[in-house]
Design goal:
mainly alpha, about 70% helix
Length: about 120
């Protein structure tokens, strides 16, 4: 019998030799114990308090957006050309988000006081 015959390979692949094989163990772990996805493994850095209401959360979001806008605007002063344009684009995007949050807060305040919004 040749050492490369199917019977010779079957004899080498008995359960005892497979259980001691690092490659077999890795293959079984891959299929039977898949790694957790990165999103499941990493906890968020910032988690709002569970008792934080929508109004307070929106007010804090406005403050954070104002800080981000001011920071990006100050950074833009240090740049020239395309980098300055990009930094000012970030300022613009932040200011648009801030306007939407402030609009949402205004609508909420209007609806809470009984004023109809259009």
């Amino acid at each position: 019998m040749s050492s490369h015959s199917p019977d010779a390979l079957d004899a080498k692949l008995d359960s005892e030799s497979l259980s001691s094989s690092d490659a077999a163990r890795r293959a079984l772990d891959y299929y039977l114990n898949p790694p957790q996805r990165a999103a499941e493994m990493e906890a968020p850095f910032f988690v709002p308090r569970p008792d934080l209401g929508r109004l307070k959360a929106s007010e804090h979001a406005c403050s954070l957006l104002r800080c981000a806008s001011a920071t990006a605007y100050e950074m833009a002063d240090d740049f020239k050309g395309t980098r300055r344009d990009m930094a000012l684009s970030v300022v613009h995007i932040i200011n648009m988000a801030l306007a939407l949050v402030e609009h949402s807060l205004g609508e909420r305040a209007g609806s809470q006081s009984g004023i109809e919004s259009t």
